[in-house]
Amino acid sequence: GGLLLTWDEEGNRYINSIAGAVIPVFTRL
Length: 29
Description:
mainly alpha, about 95% helix
């Protein structure tokens, strides 16, 4: 469980960083 939780936290940071970079591009379109 601990390993999965850590992976989720890192995965969420990764997804949020991608979303933060991609969403502004779509909003400009």
